[in-house]
Every structure is written in C-alpha cells, then in structure tokens.
Target: Alpha-amylase
Amino acid sequence: MLQTHLRGLLQQIYPARDAGDLARAVLAAFWPEGRTRRQRPRRPSNNLWSERDAIVITYGNSIEDGAHKPLDLLHDFLRREMTGVVDGVHVLPFFPSSSDDGFAVMDYREVDPALGDWSDIRRIGAAFSLMSDMVLNHVSSQGAWFTAYLQGQPPYDRFFMEASPEDDLSAVVRPRTSPLLRAVTTAMGPRHVWCTFSHDQVDLDFRNPEVLLEILRVLRLHIDEGVRIIRLDAVAFLWKAPGTPSIHMPQTHAIVKLMRLLADYATEPVILLTETNVPKAENLSYFGRRDEAHMVYQFPLPPLVLHAMLSGNVRYLRRWLRAMPPAPLGCAYFNFTASHDGIGMRPVEGILPPEEIAAMIDCVRDNGGLVSMRALPGGGEAPYELNCSYFDAMRRTFAGEEGDRIARFLCSQTIVMSLEGIPAFYIHSFTATENDHTAVAQRGMNRAINRHRWSYPALCARLDDPATAAAQVMAEMKRRLRIRARQPGFHPNATQLTLAPDDRLLCVWRQSLDRGQSIFALHNVSAETVVIDAFSLNLIADEDWRDLLSGEAIDPDGTIAFAPYQCRWIANTG
Model:
C-alpha cells in the first residue's frame, strides 16, 4: 500500500520520471539500511496530543552568558522554569547560517558550534517534545550546496531555481520587496537564481527530484536526533514557475502529502506543521483531506487578538472564530500570538477593515514598534507585518490608556490557552521582554526588535524579583498553564462554540471529548468592569460551577463580574 500511494504522488510531482524508480529512491532516503517502518500507516486520530500539550518557542541563543554553550543555558532555563508547564519546545533553526537568524541554512546536518552540538539537542528532546525547522524552500548563498552550484559540481549544478529577467514574473506572490532574481556567475556561464526572501537565501529547485531526496535524508537525520515535530518553513513557496503566482502550487501540496505518508509509516510519532502565513482558505488547504499537515498555524490570531486588546472590542476576533471549522480528525490548530517573526497582517486581509488596520499600525508605532512592507504583484507595497514585542504592543490602547499592561498582556495569552488547538508561547512572552531597538540598529532588520538575547544572570535576577514584570508574567502564565493541563475540556480537539454575551468579552464554550467537562472561557479585553447574567451562559442548574482561575463558586442564577482584563474559566466541578 505504501509503495502504491507513493508512486501515485510521485507521478503527480514528476510525470516525466519513472515513478517506481523514484519510489524506491524515496524509501531508501527516508529509511536507509537498518531502519524499520510500520507495516500499516498510523490512522488519523486525536491521540497525538492532549490538554497537557503546550509549546515554548525560542532561539538556541535567546539566553547567553558568555561562558557556557547557549543550548546548555536553554536546557537549564527549560528545566528550571518550564518543567510541568509546557510539554514541547520549538528550537528555531540551530544550524550554521549566514543571515536571517538561522533561516539561511549553510549546513542542514550540523548544529551551529556557537550554540552547541547534537548532544545538546538530544538532551532537550529527551525532556520535551522537540520541534525543529525544515527550511526547505531555500538555503544560504554561502553554504556548500550553492558554492558547488556556482562551480558546476553535480548534483548541485541542478539544485537551484533559475529564471530569466525576460520571464513573466509579474504574478509571483512574495513576502518581501527585494528583487526576486539575483544575477550570479557560474562555471556554466551567467545565471539568474530565484530568491523569494533575500539574495542570501537562494531557492531550491524541487523540479529536480534529487533535491527532494536530499531533503528527505535531512528529515530522517532530524528524526534520528530526537525531533518529533517538523515545522515546514515557508512551504507555500516550494514549487514555482514563471507566469504563475508560485505559491500553493499543486506540486507543493503533493510533496506535503508525500511527507505525511512517510510520517504515517514512521515508527516514531512524527508530526508535520506547515508554516503558511496566508489568508484562511489558503492556510486550511494544508490539512488536505487529512493527508497533509497534522497542524497548521493560526496566523490570524496574533493580529486579531492584538486588535481586540487595543480596541477593547472582540467583534472581529469573534466573527473570525465563529467561521473557523473544527480541525479534521487527526489534525489540530497551532495557536500563538507572538513568535520570532512579526505580527503578520496578510491573514487579516478581508477580516479587519482598512481603518482598523491603520489604527493598529498607528498604535503599534506609538508603542515603539515598526512596520515591514511587502511587494504587490504589478507594483506597489502593503503592510506585511508589525514588528514589536507583544508585551510592548500592550503598552497603550487605541484610547491611549497606559495602565494595566500586565493584565492586558496576560489576557491576550489566556485567550490562546483557551481556544481549540495547541497553544504556543514565545520565550519573550514568558519573560515580558520589551522592544530591543539596539538590536535593530546593530543588525539592520526590523525583526530584531523582538529577538532579544537575554543575559542569563540578568534574566534570572529579574525572574527572582517578584516586583518585576518578568516575574509577575512568568508566575501567572505558569499558574494558568498548569491549571489548563488538568482540564480535559481544553483537549486540542475538544468541542468549541463561540458565544456573544458582550462585545467586550471573548467567550468560548469548550466541551471534553467524552462530554464530561464543560468550560466557559471568558476574557474581558476592555479597561471597563463588565457584568453579565450567568443565565446568558446556559449553565446547567444541577451542577456545581467554579471559576478555575479564581476559585470562586459561580451561581447559575446570579451575575458574573469581570474586572478590567480579567479572565475566567468557568467549569462544572460536580
């Protein structure tokens, strides 16, 4: 069955090649001699994750001290602060790299010696479910593969996507404003190579099956080193051709299906997560028919939650949530607000009106943030992302209110904890990190504003001082995550319905898979006190209801008050 399905996918991707020969090559790449695979595929189910799952996102060098390996320090931080709080850790690209903080990979098979080595990665993976990045769209222009391409050395002489300035490239969708093509001199003569992201990140040419085979060998290496969640970075741009948008191409989806097929037959529980910062329908397409990604990012969440917190109104966030279908069986949403990248604005195209987007941009700039642009097909620019620490983005609201920043920020993170899916939190959300303008000036890119590198002694001192914002945010986020992990109503696939008791309250009802627990998760996104009738939640009268966060008993026939930015998880406890 595996070979039949594999041949069918390879026929779609490479119709001019012998699918049988390619299938054998794929199997040898992913399961080299000595490796075994399942006899039957792993069937779609909701057993790959639970309410105990939450993930911290971090760079390998987000914590430094000048004396120890950064991965050593990260392991110590995770052991000290995250044990029993999160189940997984996403270590952003830890390979030798020439730019873009790891996303211009020079060598897929090595750990950057400035961070540590594979033993450090394995140690983290032994304690937490480990996620790594498969930066499969492009590699560094300074890496061995591209150097061999320039010298005309096979097989790398056919590893990179070439085009001509005379080609019709007007329809190409891109997240950057830099020129798409880069002129290079090779042993074969002058060429123009395709660079979706930057001229230091040269796109691989997956039209050559040898590229796919080499990427599969890299995937196998990472799995052998303990990685269990594979983040397919920039996967939407994988297959490109002049005269097309070169995004979400059919061959791209077929390659994701091929990787999912291999994962389903792997003896290790491998999960695929697609990184596609695009509007809703395009993003959800990567679930396929339960045969592509296990998880997809909820990219509209960061801007929509931010808008709700700054405006004090959940209307647009609630409308989007109501229109979101439940994840298919065997699939889950990946929920977050902050990450190593900026707050993407493309996913809210058609959701937030232009005047609301303009208000967000103005407020983020007032809060010390920056705005990055993208090129539009045919010319012009549009906002691509807001660059700002998520904690600093809460400094003041549309109304100019500056108080309650910690409560406002905690409310935003609690929303992520409450929704269907698996919650993920950037390390700088746990540590209430502020904008790093010095890093922007030193490194020459807007995204550096939210990629602060902590001195570990300084960070520990802050976390040990209960008067600091870092200590207060860390303590409360840990408390809420520990409570969450004990609630079956917060299983990533537990039923979710969106209620509307008040435009200042985001309210979702979650029900456990066995229907034994109901949780009404309510979040006051405003600076006002809000009071609602408990009757509006339809609390079952003959059960005991209690707010899991405050411990208060809730009277189904009474009223429920919310202080500014207060969150309540009202659950049946009887």
